[in-house]
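Deliverable D2.4 — example input (structure tokens):
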């Protein structure tokens, strides 16, 4: 009996030695049941299908796809490209037990998914005190396109590789802007490209967003070529929108046209030629209302009522068309209580603009005189439809 016990112990020792060496050398061998215990069950939450990729990025090779409500087994998670999904916005990507990665933005898991083991240190999330979020200059914008889907590229150029495509109405998070290829889009014509939170770029010509800051070291954006109209052409183009402004809001058409001429330089200013803003209406804390489609920051010259002028920076609204700008002009005056006295004179153009100026619409002390002079010289009173 003792001999038999001794032989069994010797056998155990001889077997255990090579087994231990094999496990350490392979680095992947685990005791039975360990891998399954670490796996976390999850459910896919997506409208159509979710791509399974070879790495944690939307640019990585597609290995397959998963349908909505499909059950999967996740092994661990890694940090990759940030994605906005139906469940959350996150940079976490989940490694599947079947191979490949899916963004955690479309995954509902039964428990927290542990980080994948790595031989190199991984960055940890910065811990902040509750109730004090980290300040950010990122701006969430909306893609607007009547030309189909919009390409998001690896660089600020129409020749840069396409990373993905987005449909009109999609949300994108802009970090800053740079100068690149000139693009004539649905929203505007511009050489500005917005750098997104994932490091890729989208043409500002297709994005409605609050104003972004220039990326560090970025060159100034080249202005779009200005469309030059003769005074006759400008007035002809302005009349329909100005008369619609009077019908909708009560602003005399002659006043609207004269203000547009004065403030846009007959449509030749950068603000009007690039952003179709003919009245210098500004954004307020990044908000641009329902008729504009975004904001754009400019350096501008302003004057006090005492006649002292100075250079400052201001953020102005951008528009899809001249008509949208003219409608917003009427709406802007109508909804601001300070201009209410002017609407007692909707059929008296001179009295109307006098009360608008008196309420502080413009800081130029000669603004009223300039507007009424244009109204008379260009015979704009004929477009006041109540006559």
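Example output (designed residues):
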């Amino acid at each position: 009996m003792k001999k038999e016990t001794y032989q069994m112990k010797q056998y155990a020792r001889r077997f255990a030695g090579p087994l231990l060496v094999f496990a350490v050398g392979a680095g992947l061998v685990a005791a039975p049941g360990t891998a399954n215990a670490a796996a976390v069950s999850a459910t896919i939450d997506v409208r159509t299908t979710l791509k399974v990729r070879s790495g944690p990025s939307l640019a990585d090779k597609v290995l397959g796809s998963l349908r909505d409500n499909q059950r999967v087994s996740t092994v661990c998670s890694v940090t990759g490209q940030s994605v906005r999904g139906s469940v959350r916005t996150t940079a976490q990507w989940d490694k599947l037990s079947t191979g490949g990665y899916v963004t955690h933005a479309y995954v509902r898991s039964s428990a927290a998914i542990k980080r994948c083991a790595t031989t190199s240190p991984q960055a940890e999330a910065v811990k902040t005190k509750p109730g004090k979020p980290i300040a950010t200059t990122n701006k969430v914008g909306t893609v607007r396109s009547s030309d189909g889907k919009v390409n998001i590229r690896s660089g600020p150029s129409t020749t840069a590789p396409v990373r993905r495509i987005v449909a009109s109405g999609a949300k994108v998070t802009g970090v800053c802007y740079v100068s690149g290829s000139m693009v004539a889009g649905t929203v505007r014509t511009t050489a500005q490209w917005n750098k997104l939170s994932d490091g890729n770029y989208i043409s500002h010509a297709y994005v409605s967003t609050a104003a972004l800051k220039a990326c560090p070291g970025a060159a100034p954006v080249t202005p779009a070529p200005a469309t030059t109209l003769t005074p006759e052409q400008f007035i002809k183009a302005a009349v329909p929108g100005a008369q619609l402004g009077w019908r909708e809001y009560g602003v005399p058409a002659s006043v609207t046209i004269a203000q547009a001429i004065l403030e846009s330089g007959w449509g030749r200013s950068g603000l009007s030629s690039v952003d179709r803003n003919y009245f210098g209406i500004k954004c307020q804390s990044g908000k641009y209302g329902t008729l504009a489609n975004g904001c754009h920051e400019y350096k501008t010259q302003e004057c006090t009522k005492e006649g002292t002028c100075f250079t400052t920076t201001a953020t102005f609204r951008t528009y899809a068309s001249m008509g949208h700008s003219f409608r917003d002009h009427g709406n802007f005056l109508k909804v601001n209580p300070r201009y209410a006295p002017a609407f007692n004179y909707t059929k008296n153009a001179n009295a109307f603009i006098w009360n608008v100026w008196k309420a502080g619409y413009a800081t130029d002390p000669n603004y009223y005189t300039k507007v009424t002079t244009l109204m008379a010289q260009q015979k704009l009173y004929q477009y006041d439809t109540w006559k």
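The longest strand covers residues 71-84.
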